[in-house]
Amino acid sequence: MSDIDVAATDAVSISEFDRLTAPVPAVQDGGPEMIQLLTPEGQRVPNADYDALVATLGDDELRGFYRDLVLIRRVDAEATALQRQGELGIWASLLGQEAAQVGSGRALKPQDYAFPTYREHGVAWCRGVDPLNLLGLFRGVNHGGWDPNEKNFHLYTIVIGAQTLHATGYAMGVQRDGAVGTGDEQRDTAVIAYFGDGATSQGDVSEALVFAGVTNAPVVFFCQNNQWAISEPNDKQTRVPLYQRASGFGFPGIRVDGNDVLAVYAVTRAALDSARSGQGPTFIEAFTYRMGAHTTSDDPTKYRVSAEVEVWKHRDPIERFKAWLAHEGKADHEFFAAVEREADELAVHVREGCLSMPDPVATEMFDHVYVESHPLVAKERAEFTAYQASFEGAH
Amino acid sequence: MGATTIAKGINNGLRAAMDKDARVLLMGEDIGKLGGVFRVTEGLQKDFGEDRVIDTPLAEAGIVGTAIGMALRGYRPVVEIQFDGFVYPAFDHIINQVAKMHARSLSKVRLPMVIRIPVGGGIGAVEHHSESNEAYFTHTAGLRVVCCSNPSDAYWMIQQAIETDDPVIFYEPKRRYWDKGEVAESADLGLFDARVCRSGTDVTLLAYGPMVKTCLQAAEAAEAEGKSLEVIDLRSLSPIDVPTVVESVRKTGRAVIVHEAPTFGGLGGELAATIAEECFYSLEAPVLRVGGYNIPYPPAKLEEEFLPDLDRVLDAVDRSLAH
Q1: pLDDT over 70 at A19, yes or no
Q2: Cα distance from B261 to chain A (closest Cα, Å)?
Q3: Which of A86, A181, A273, B291 could cross-link with B263 by S-S, CB 3.0 to 4.6 Å?
Q4: Pick from A198, A199, A201: CB nearest B62
Q5: pLDDT for position A145
């Protein structure tokens, strides 16, 4: 199968060759290289590299993580229900990926900038985007209902992987602004690009890694490996663990348990700190699982077995963190109950806000195409307005 | 052959082509186990195996680029682009490589490949899922571009496209995927022939893909008002069956072109110019275009306002007849 003479090659031992050419096993766990600070049972795993970062978190912040996890899961459930009831055209659920998103989102500083896919509802939450504003896109009211510059949270990018280049370019701009490595905590800025396992196959993502590597840009590539690109499992996208890709581009890659909010926070925080200080990019593979369908239009029973989903249910990101908080005495029943009540209230806010969301004004579709006036758009706007008025007159 | 849908018609057509020619193979995202997001390739991997129905990595440039290599090796790849708005990563390969290979090799190299693209709006989707981007491809010499509008054509045209030795962009009107219709016993037209699907004497409506149904409905409504509309389904967008168009417009003296794509720089402009050149002395009115507005495809709540519909077609017909 290969013309490499294995026996005569010093650089590649036979066992190494076997490892490199072995079929990729169906991945069920992240392996020993995966950074995990909390087991699925909620037991703390000491880690010399990251314990100090976790230790900086106060109890309020830790309880805040729990609140984030629960609230965004409730938003997600409510949105899914709204889609089922015909109020949203489609919804891309984050179920199962809450810790990956909250852990990384909470590691960001206000001046940092995040570039999401269309599933980063938890990161949006951490950036202060009202969950209601996420629904506009899925309800067909707008293409993104928030001001990216206000939240330092870009609009959702639907074309797979494209935003990794935008993030890299933004980070190159940060470099030129002298907002890297100054030691000023308010000034030094990092950029984070979110994408999935499927996106790593896109040329854009490889090109982003090239640009980030050669420019040493302050960007963190945060890959949520949720094991499935719609119907295609990891082995249709890659022969190596995704985090290992980074070494070929000249910067560190690391795999973290994406269902462990503490580990995700610590690993992302370290990577962002490194980027801000001028040490360049990091590739983080958050090893997680898409518990639901790709979107509400998808039917995963056609391509994956329920036993696999069962395995991941036991790795639930919220349960393990709750168990740890309770065991450590950092939160009690009263706190957990209060979060549930808040989740109920948020669900009502999302539901009522969705139902009362006004339809867009049709003429506005002409209003944002160009910065400056454009004769053809102006002409068509006028024609459209007159045409619409001709119906109103007829009734 | 009985009634079926456009989606199933293409599925059956792909199956027939694969049965007939072992060099035909399918490539795309989620087309195997899942059967494609629209289920157009449902069951084909099960019956033809993973070597002939390939679930590719998520990379459109990769899909089209490797399909070129497959074609160079003698295969006849049929690739699926999941949605119209996702074809652009492959644009470079389609424009610079697929379209030009035959010419630059002085006819030594053929690329008999088909690029299937679900096209158009009307399904309430999020952005990039409702594009009508045919003009980019019709503008490119070396590509043939076709679009089916009904189950029978879907079944026969996909087979004809696969048998074509030139590369073919094969558009599928996604909002009509589940429309049912009878499938003819044989292909009654060549792949690049237009179809006069309703005869009339007053105005010629020119359409393709999703707008054919809209134009037929408009013709039906106009008949009640005593207007006789002729409806032509172009079927092939490059080349255009000019003789069929010219014959019709010379008869009616009026033409209205209808497509979902924005009109500026669109196929309607090419048709209007051709009609002006060929039918000048027969024209009773300016050639009119009804299309999408020249803005990005709007959020789903506004797509009914954006897309041409029966009323907008009839409005244009009235404006034509006013001359």
Answers
A1: no
A2: 14
A3: B291
A4: A201
A5: 85
* Whole-number pLDDT of residue A138: 97
With beta carbons under 8 A apart, name residues in chain A contacting B295: 365-366, 369, 377, 380
Phi and psi torsions of A285, nearest 5°: -105, 110
Ordered strands of the B195-198 beta sheet: B195-198, B229-233, B203-207, B255-262, B288-292
pLDDT at B112: 98
What does DSSP say about strands B229-233 and B203-207: parallel, antiparallel, or unpaired? parallel
Confidence of residue A393 (pLDDT cuts 50, 70, 90): low
d(CA A77, CA A67): 15
Q: Residue A223's beta-bridge partner residues? A: A195, A285
CATH superfamily of this structure's domain B3-182:
Thiamin diphosphate (ThDP)-binding fold, Pyr/PP domains (3.40.50.970)
Q: What is the extent of the structural domain holding A131? A: 30-355
Side-chain half-sphere of A250: how many Cα atoms within 13 Å?
12
Rounded alpha-carbon distances, angstroms, from residue B181 to A179, B2, B149: 63, 8, 10
From B233, B249, B312, B234, select the one nearest B285 (Cα to Cα): B249
Three-class SS of residue A306? helix
DSSP B24-76: EEEEETT-SSS--TT-TTTTHHHHH-TTTEEE--S-HHHHHHHHHHHHHTT-E
User: Residue A5: pLDDT above 60?
Assistant: no
Closest CA to B204 of B145, B278, B262, B306: B278
**CB pair distance less than 8 Å for A89 and B300:** yes
Say which of A19, A143, A303, A370 is annotated catalytic: A303
- Assess if CATH 3.40.50.880 describes domain B195-321: no
Are residues A366 and A277 located together in one domain of the fold? no
Confidence check: pLDDT of A170 > 90: yes
pLDDT in tens, A279-315: 999 999 999 999 999 999 999 999 999 899 999 999 9
B129 catalytic? Reply is yes
DSSP state, A287?
E
- The dihedrals phi and psi of A17, each to the nearest 5 degrees, come to -65, -45
Set of chain B residues whose Cβ sits within 8 Å of the Cβ of A198: 57-58
What interface predicted TM-score (ipTM) does this complex get? 0.92
Determine the residue among A135, A157, A160 to mutate to test chain B binding: the one whose Cβ has the most chain B Cβ atoms within 10 Å. A160
Out of A67, A269, A290, A320, pick the active-site residue.
Answer: A290
- Whether the CB-CB separation of B158 and B14 falls below 8 Å is answered with yes
Residues A288 and A388 in one domain: no
Token pair listed for B45: 């991997």
Instruction: Tell me which chain B residue has its CA closest to the CA of residue A203.
Output: B59
Task: Report whether the peptide linkage leading into residue B239 is cis, meaning its omega lies within 30 degrees of zero.
Answer: yes
Domain boundaries of chain B, sorted by first residue: 3-182, 195-321
Domains B3-182 and B195-321 share a fold: yes
DSSP B93: I
Chain A residue whose CA is closest to B31: A231
Interface of B with A (CB under 8 A): 29-30, 32-35, 37, 55-59, 61-62, 85-86, 88-89, 124-129, 264, 293-296, 298-303, 305-306, 311-312, 315
| Chain A, nearest residue to B300 by Cα | A140
- The average pLDDT across B285-302 equals 98
Q: What are phi and psi of A277, to 5 degrees?
A: -85, 0
Reported confidence tier of residue A34, pLDDT bands at 50, 70, 90: very high
